[in-house]
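User: Quick one: structure for sequence A, then sequence B.

Assistant: Sequence A:
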Amino acid sequence: MARHDLSEGLGRMSKHNRGTIFLEDAALLSQTAFEGDQRVMRFEAPMCAAHATPGTFVHVATDPLIPMRRPLSIMRADAAKGWVEVCFRVRGPGMTALSGRKAGDKVSVLGPIGHGFTLHPERPRALLIGAGYGIPPMVFLADRLRGRTDASWQPLVLLSSEAPFPFRIRPSQIVVPGIPDGTIACMPMMDEWGVASRLATRAEFPGCFDGSVTQLADEWLRTLNSDVLGEVEIFACGPTPVVKASAELARRYGVPCQVSMEEHMACAVGACAGCNVAVQTPEGPAMKRVCVDGPVFDAYAVTWS
């Protein structure tokens, strides 16, 4: 497998990202199809797998004839076995081309890119909010949390989709106090991990909360007393309205919040500066690149329009 450290070749990339992003001719190991034209792909990409953290992403060449790469959040990574997984919906020529690749095909994968979520052991009640394309980073974060021993982590994963979920939903075997009666649907893999999860949708899927994922989060948060809230931190990813609503929830309940921002990307390595967002820094207002300065930001620092 060809591997190339890009740290010397990307002269305009910020210095703090050098030596952390790798280009790999990754073998496609598997592709699983789900309802709604969704795919979960697993690539053999050892360097990326060894350095990936929840919230980081890869820039994938979808086809040799399509010059622009596509950014895809990492859904899972196994450093020991050398693979990374991504999840995407088949839309447009790029994703259509990628969905046509077969096991054993080589796919150019650039990653891991960006700064992921930061975990704080003093806040072990992690509330993970993922909507639509924001689901994969929450799966990765939950996977990492269940393996940590630096605190008594008690994650709660709330996911939403208006299309079919990229997994087969089923009733959860894990009781979650504070969740509305009848909201019992979960991501099966989370139950297998022993991680509590619940689903929200307006598409009337059975067992799901009828409303937005942030409304479901609000229902749970309002049942907590001040001592428990002192152990909560919110992690959110999804469309801008969802991460903005998550930030508003954090302010209302006085808890920290980290959000993974989404912007259109060209280079994805900080050179084009086409994915800027406005944030507040100790030095004052600034424009930061979602790709390499993020995609994860402190929700309190983001300038929400």
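Sequence B:
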Amino acid sequence: MSRGRPEYLAAALGAVAIVLGPATAAAQSVPDDTGLDFFRPPPNLFQLQYGYRTAPGDTRDVTTQTLNFRYDHAFDLTPTWILVTRSDLPLVAKNTINSGNPNGSYLYGVGDADIQAAFIHNLDKRWAVGFGARLIAPTGEDPLGSGKWRVMPIVGFRVALPEISASSYFEPIFRYDESVAGDPTRRNISNLQFGPALNIGLPDRWFVTFYPSQDIRVNFGDPVTGQTGRLFLPFDARFGKKLSDNVAASLELGVPIIRDYPVYNFKGQFRLNVTW
């Protein structure tokens, strides 16, 4: 873990939970112009994501910048079942003030990496359901990682909305983030996460998605700094465009509406997806 200026991570940029996806030829005939649809996964996906987030700290707000590398691979099991795997490697910069960093300088290093698998079942051209789990490893040093091994079960469904446009859909996803082992001195994690994603396909391959991430949270674990209740309810939206058949870019912004359980004060994420 190294110290430095936050601009370095942002300069490095210079350069979604899994759920469902049909595998039948009929379902694949419905175009996905977002390039971000977990229910209709491509065989391979590489995603470069840069995130900027502020959250309450003990003495001041803490800023976290993350450059995340993600890779997905889908396996056709039967004409209606598919297995999708995912792995994430986050590089993190964070300016937490603690005993080892009293000046609040930016600390740099690897965050908590994860692997994920989901089984997806295509019911018909409109409906799909699925379930999976993510394993999160404590690969990040304090304060860049949680210090805990975590398991995250995932379940959800998708309904296509061709009445709006060919690439519109409603995709609610539930996850439960639970720490199961790790540093006993670190905060225990136990919270429900929900994202009722509503994607609206727009002309010229533009799209807007409301609640694309599972940022609605109910905390049943140890309290965090500034917590007064259990609920975090943000306004969260993503805007993007499919630049080509294999490349899509998007920008997601989130701000709190109810912050009794303060996940963030502000969130911004840029994603670049490449599929093949």
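The longest strand covers residues 62-76. The chain has one domain: 2-271.

User: Thanks, that's what I needed.
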